[in-house]
Design a protein that fits this description.
This protein has 213 residues and is α+β, with helices and mostly antiparallel strands. The protein contains six helices and ten strands; from the N terminus they run αββαβαββαβαββαββ. The chain has two domains: 112 residues, CBS-domain; 91 residues, 2-Layer Sandwich (Alpha-Beta Plaits), CATH 3.30.70.260. It has a five-stranded antiparallel sheet, with helices on both faces. It is elongated and about 60 Å long.
Length: 213
């Protein structure tokens, strides 16, 4: 699934003429810690709640703290795994989505990302999740399955996705046990690139549960 396909239409945007008070009001209303700032349909960056509360005057305009905006964004036409990576790395409650020219498309909420990840990985089934990144020609189900089984585990679900814009192939595995450090070590020993993994003990709110190697 592409980022543009899970855009949230409920989350509002800010503009440079909005005040800090207005931004904080919207963040509180929509239960987010940051919001995108958009001017003439172009993405200006994310403004964070902490930066707003540090301002001396809540009537100060957002244009006065442009230097504090985060420029983090994901492309509309890449796989939503990239949005998960951005959310995890920058601890975001919303992930901005743009076109290559900087045109603002929308945001993906933390809740929606977790729901999509759950659907992809069969979250109702017990077990851990591993996401591998590789070249498509290197994909071998039999080899991957063998490496998992050597650690007394089995693959209960497997999904693949090829991002043709980056020529990247993702393999998402659901494993029938929660402790997977031995499986991770085996994949690394065989030079597999592990994009993320999710274990039973990784239950911290939002994307801190998705561990980046």
């Amino acid at each position: 699934m592409l980022n543009k396909e899970i855009i949230s239409t409920a989350i509002p945007t800010l503009n440079l003429q909005d005040t800090a008070a207005r931004a904080l009001e919207l963040m509180n209303e929509f239960h987010v810690s940051e919001l995108p700032v958009v001017e003439n349909d172009l993405y200006q960056g994310l403004v964070f709640e902490n930066d707003l509360t540090d301002m001396d005057d809540d009537q100060q305009l957002l244009q006065s703290i442009v230097d504090h905006f985060s420029k983090v964004t994901v492309h509309a036409h890449t796989h939503f795994i990239e949005a998960i990576q951005a959310a995890n790395e920058y601890h975001l409650s919303v992930v901005p989505v743009t076109e290559k020219d900087g045109e603002y498309v929308g945001v993906i909420s933390a809740v929606d990302l977790l729901l999509q990840l759950g659907r992809l990985t069969g979250a109702s089934e017990p077990g851990a999740v591993i996401v591998l990144e590789m070249e498509q020609r290197s994909f071998s189900f039999s080899e991957i399955s063998k490496l998992v089984e050597t650690n007394d585990a089995q693959i209960t679900q497997l999904n693949t996705y090829w991002d043709n814009s980056t020529d990247t192939f993702f393999v998402t595995l659901k494993i029938n046990k929660f402790e997977i450090s031995d499986i991770i070590a085996t994949f690394q020993r065989y030079d597999y690139q592990i994009k993320y993994f999710l274990e039973k003990n990784s239950t911290k709110m939002s994307y801190a549960a998705i561990m980046t190697i």
